[in-house]
Amino acid sequence: MKLLFTAMLVPAALSIAATPAAAQNADAGAQVFNTCRACHTLNKGGRNGAGPNLHGLFGRQAAAATGFSYSPALKASKIRWDDKTLSEYLVAPTKRVPGTRMMVKVPDAAKRAALIAYLKRETSK
After folding, report:
1. Signal sequence span per UniProt (predicted)?
2. Residue 61 phi, psi dihedral angles, 5° rounding
């Protein structure tokens, strides 16, 4: 009985603990995004800069945001943005999509995860 009770409590405790950790991770991602801010905005209806506005990024086909002139390479990439594809792209954009114009890399896995958590939170508002 004790084992069953413990087995029921652990998943519940993990789900409660996951929310603050995810928020902290996203908060750390805000600092990582400061590098991206020179080219990208996040708010709905925000302007494009040297890079496109990223609002609504997750689930969207690459090079599909309106009003931005994407590279032919990114247009042809057939990428649909999710955690995995964005992480792969951010490691080394020009290796993932040769011919892309994005040069900024986020090779550190922890910083990349934090940035993705932040982007998920901020681009869905």
Report:
1. 1-23
2. -70, 140
In the chain, the amino acid numbered 38 is: A
pTM equals 0.81
Dist CA 108 CA 78 (whole Å) = 25
pLDDT of 58 strictly over 90: yes
Amino acid at 3: L
Query: What is the arithmetic mean of pLDDT over 77-94?
Result: 98
Structure tokens that stand for 83 in this block:
């955690």
Sequence-distant (6+) residues with CB within 8 A of 86 are 57, 58, 116, 119
Judge whether 103 and 73 are in contact, CB under 8 Å: no
CATH architecture label of 2-122: Orthogonal Bundle (1.10)
Give the separation between CA 48 and CA 94, rounded to whole angstroms.
21
Cα pseudo-dihedral 85, 100, 52, 115, rounded to 10: 40
